[in-house]
C-alpha cells in the first residue's frame, strides 16, 4: 500500500535521485538509498505509527526513524524511469545528488538489456521479461554473484559484487507505481537509518520471526497462504526462518547470496547449517562473532519479554557484521577494543507494517502479555547459535 501525498506543494527544484539499495537481502518492498546514511521505503501508515510511538527500550534495536519525504516517479530523456525525492528546505544542503552511481548504472543496464532496439519497453513488459528470465534464474540459484555492467556512457563499469534481490524488488516496485500512480504523482516514503553504512563488506542475515506471519487485517486467502508457508518451513517448529542472506567470502572477494525461497525449503538441520554458513567467510568459521551476537540477542529477548500487547507479525530480524576483518592490532589496541564492539556486530528489528499493540491502528484487537511466537523464535535462535559456539 502506498500512501500518496495529494497536497499541492510547490516544487522546490531540488531532487535527490533514489538508488536501489544493493544490500537489501529480503522483503518485497523496495528499499531505496537516499544518501550514505539513509534509506527509504514506501510509507505504510501502520509502520509509521509504530516508529513514532516506539518504546524507548526498543530504539537501539530498530533503525532510527528520520521522518517522511515526498517522492515522484519520473522518466528522463532516455526513457529511464527513476524515483526522485524532494527533501524539505532545511535538508536540501545535507543530501547531495548522485546520478551516476553503480546502483543507477546497474538498474539502467537492466532496462537497456531487456528493451528492444527501438527503445525501452513499456514497464509492464519489462517487468514480465525481468521476472521470467534474469531475476528468476538469479534468485533461485545458489550463487556467489559478481557481475559487470555497462555504464550509461557506454564505458564498462568495474566488476562489482552485488545482491540482485534489491534490484528485483525495485523492478516490481516501479511496476506497481507505474500502474497505480501517473508520472509526477507524489508519494510518501519513510526515511530510515541505513544500518549497514558503517560496514566495508556488510554480511546480513534476514530472519523472519515468529510463528504467525499474517497481520490481523489479512484476508482469509492471505491468512491461508501465510499459514501454509509457516507450516512448511522452520517458522512452525522453530519460530524463525531464513528470509535472505549475504555473507562475504574472503577467498573469492565476493558475497555468497541466498534468498527467501532457499530459506523456505530448509529443514531444522538445514537452518542450523545456514547459520553456520552465515558465519563462515569461505576460509574459516568466525567464532569470535558468536559471543557479541549472543549477547545482543539475549538483550533483545529481555526487551521483547517486557513489551506487553505487542505482536510483531511478519517482522524481520537482521544480524549484521563486517565481512572485512579488522587489521592486526597491538595487545594494547586489542585490550582497549574490548570496551567497545570490535567485531562491529549489530542486531536490528525491521518491517513493522503488520505490528499491532495497544493503542495502534487496530482498535478491535488488543493482546495481553508479550509476543510468545517471537520469543519462541528468539529462544530457538539463541539455542542453535550456542550449539555452534560450543562446537555441537
| CATH topology category name of the largest domain | D-amino Acid Aminotransferase, Chain A, domain 1
**In which order are the strands of the major sheet placed?**
1-6-5-8-4-3-2
Please estimate the helix content.
25-40%
- What sort of overall outline do the alpha carbons produce when their principal axes are compared? globular
CATH class of the largest domain: Alpha Beta
What is the first-to-last residue Cα distance?
A: 44 Å
**Which class do the helix and strand fractions yield?**
alpha+beta
GO molecular function, one term: ATP binding
Organism: Nannospalax galili
Enzyme class: transferase
Protein name: Kinase
Provide tags for this entry.
2 domains, alpha+beta, disordered N terminus, six-stranded antiparallel β-sheet, 12 helices, D-amino Acid Aminotransferase, Chain A, domain 1
Structure description:
- The protein is an alpha+beta fold and 392 residues long.
- It has two domains: 16-193, no CATH class; 202-389, 2-Layer Sandwich (D-amino Acid Aminotransferase, Chain A, domain 1), CATH 3.30.470.160.
- Helices cover 32% and strands 20% of the residues.
- The chain has twelve helices and 15 strands.
- The protein has helices at 45-52, 102-114, 123-132, 134-139, 165-180, 220-231, 234-238, 260-264, 268-278, 290-305, 331-337, 372-389, and strands at 16-17, 19-20, 32-35, 38-42, 65-75, 81-86, 143-144, 186-193, 202-209, 240-249, 254-258, 311-312, 316-322, 346-350, 355-356.
- A seven-stranded antiparallel sheet has the order 1-6-5-8-4-3-2. A six-stranded antiparallel sheet has the order 7-11-10-9-13-14.
- Strand 5 and strand 6 (81-86) form a beta hairpin.
- Helix 3 packs antiparallel against helix 5 and helix 10 runs antiparallel to helix 12.
- The longest helix has 18 residues, at 372-389.
- InterPro entries: IPK (IPR005522), IPK_sf (IPR038286).
- Keywords: ATP-binding, Kinase, Nucleotide-binding, Transferase.
- Its EC number is 2.7.-.-.
- It is an enzyme of class 2 (transferase).
- One of its GO terms (molecular function) is ATP binding.
